[in-house]
Design brief:
CATH class of the largest domain: Mainly Alpha
Family: Belongs to the binding-protein-dependent transport system permease family.
Helix content: over 70%
Keywords: Membrane, Transmembrane, Transmembrane helix, Transport
Structural class: mainly alpha
CATH superfamily of the largest domain: MetI-like
Radius of gyration: 25 Å
Order of helices and strands: HHEEHHHEHHHHHHHHHHHH
Mean pLDDT: 86
Low-confidence stretches: none
Number of helices: 17
Protein name: ABC transporter permease subunit
Number of strands: 3
CATH architecture of the largest domain: Orthogonal Bundle
Largest sheet: 3 strands, antiparallel
Main location: membrane
Number of domains: 2
Strand order of the largest sheet: 2-1-3
Strand content: under 5%
Subcellular location: Cell membrane
Length: 391
């Protein structure tokens, strides 16, 4: 009896999730209907946005998830409730688009509204809370990420969302979407990769030479305080001069505006976490370990490569994680100076007052950042286990 009461006691996080679900069901519109893509829309509550069977399915799944979140502490049950809610609400918003829009009207637009986003947030929070309580290993977390990606891909490829305004925006821009996706990834991954090539040796030198470490971190901290759009602007003049006076630079695509200043700015922003974490990671290697390696006759290079770097790797990877996630988000701003990327759709949408065009750029950016964080967190866990095994 005591264990039953403990398993059914009120959970504070779950209570907040239950409140979110309640607000979404009773006080927030599920979708927004607009006569065309740019006019102001009108919200449709869940009862008016779906056929009766769809309303019943979403309400029952939401109530079950709210009850599990608030009263049941067993992680497996909470995860199952979150999955049930997500499986109900995501297809439902696609059904709603076909239900709300008049038949044969090619101009009408239906978009997810606050109610949908609150439900999606509540179920996602419940799933994240359950996964945290389960303390899953890195491989299981990667498998969960792959399963989530496969589910989203299946949803999109099935055509269940084809009538949503977001997918109509994509349909008209599919070619440019994938072109900007490649540009976004090149800016974020390329700048982070170059920062690692430069930052890791700088961090190693900073670890060895105290004066260099102090000066290096001070300079990089100053760079980090410059607002991104200001740094983009600062780089326009020198890169423009370089392109005008060095033919090779112009041939390589370096210009005063475009991808070049965005790439350089992202590279500069990435240096601080990479350099600082390299210095910190190497500084945390126990002196007894390095002394033992020295006693075994290892050279300074051998100690660095075979002992210090493997033990410091989890901390170094944490810095790379910070840099990559940061760059995936900040690459959006590159569109303001012609650098391309998903920010192109964000700023086009703002200029046209088309919220779904904004989401076409914002949602992939958030998804990429989320996936990168999970991948690198799993890799950090694996390297930490390897470091403990070496100890």
């Amino acid at each position: 009896m005591a264990s039953l009461r403990a398993s059914l006691s009120l959970d504070r996080v779950g209570a907040v999730i239950a409140v979110l679900i309640g607000v979404a069901l009773t006080a927030a519109p599920f979708v927004t209907y607009r006569a065309n893509r740019i006019v102001a829309g009108e919200g449709r509550m869940l009862a008016d946005a779906l056929p009766p069977a769809g309303v019943a399915a979403v309400v029952l799944a939401a109530i079950a998830a709210a009850a599990c979140a608030a009263l049941i502490r067993r992680p497996a049950i909470r995860l199952a409730a979150a999955a049930l809610g997500l499986c109900a609400v995501f297809p439902a918003v696609g059904v709603s688009a076909g239900f709300v829009a008049p038949a044969g009207n090619g101009f009408a637009r239906v978009s997810p509204a606050l109610g949908f986003w609150l439900l999606a947030l509540a179920f996602a929070l419940l799933a994240a809370d359950a996964l945290m309580r389960l303390r899953l290993g890195p491989w299981v977390r990667l498998a969960a990420l792959a399963a989530a990606g496969a589910a989203i891909a299946l949803l999109l490829l099935s055509g269940a969302w084809a009538d949503l305004s977001l997918m109509k925006e994509y349909a008209g821009r599919a070619e440019s979407f994938w072109r900007e996706a490649r540009q976004h990834l090149w800016l974020a991954l390329g700048s982070t990769g170059v920062a690692c090539l430069v930052g890791l040796p700088l961090g190693m030198l900073g670890h060895r030479i105290r004066r260099l470490r102090t000066a290096l971190l001070q300079v990089l901290n100053i760079v980090q305080t410059i607002p991104s759009i200001a740094l983009f602007g600062i780089l326009i003049a020198p890169l423009g001069y370089l392109a005008a006076h060095v033919p090779l630079a112009a041939a390589l695509g370096i210009r005063g505006i475009g991808a070049a200043p965005a790439f350089v700015a992202l590279f500069l922003y990435s240096l601080l976490p990479v350099v600082a974490n390299t210095i910190t990671g190497l500084g945390q290697v126990p002196a007894a370990v390095t002394d033992a390696a020295r006693g075994m006759g290892m050279s300074a290079r051998q100690r660095l490569v075979e002992v210090e770097l493997p033990l410091a790797l989890p901390v170094i990877l944490a810095g790379i994680r910070i840099a990559l996630v940061q760059n995936l988000g900040m690459a959006t701003i590159a569109a303001l100076i012609g650098g391309g990327g998903f920010g192109t759709f964000v700023f086009q949408g703002i200029g046209q007052t088309a919220i779904d065009l904004v989401l076409l750029g914002a949602i992939p950016t958030v998804a990429l950042s989320f996936a990168a964080a999970i991948l690198l967190d799993a890799l950090i866990d694996l390297t930490q286990r390897g470091a403990h095994d070496r100890d």
